[in-house]
Amino acid sequence: MTADQFRQLALSFTGAIESAHVGHPDFRMKGKIFATLGYPDEKHGMVKLTPTQQNQFLKKAPKVFNPCAGAWGQRGATSVHLASAKVAMIRAALDAACRNITGK
40 CB contacts (<8 Å, ≥6 apart)? Predict the structure, then answer.
């Protein structure tokens, strides 16, 4: 997966917009960030999951998903190694992150 593919998937959710936070592109729903690109580097994205969801994705694809550093990662922020990611898996992670915000 490329950064552009990640971007297109994130923006495919109804109501999603692209913005920026701390110099990185981010994707928001109802003003809340559900995903970012370029953190910690250009090879990664991030999806904002719950700790339970994070654990499920880590078990399914440990080469793709890793907790972000520190308390942020402990609360569910999950790093995505883009080159190792498959579209369907990232779509599912982005969907979960969006649902966490919208409740749908």
Answer: 69, 79
Give the count of domains, the chain. 1
| CA angle centred on 31, ends 30 and 37, rounded to 5° | 110
Sign of dihedral through CA atoms 55, 57, 59, 62? negative
- Summarize pLDDT for 6-63 with one digit per residue, the tens: 999 999 999 999 999 888 999 999 999 999 999 889 999 999 999 999 999 999 999 9
Find the CATH number of the domain harbouring 69: 3.90.1150.30
Print the domain residue range for 95.
3-102
The answer to whether 47 and 53 are in contact (CB under 8 A) is no
Tell me the C-alpha distance between 24 and 1, whole Å: 18
- Encode pLDDT of 72-96 as tens digits: 999 999 999 999 999 999 999 999 9
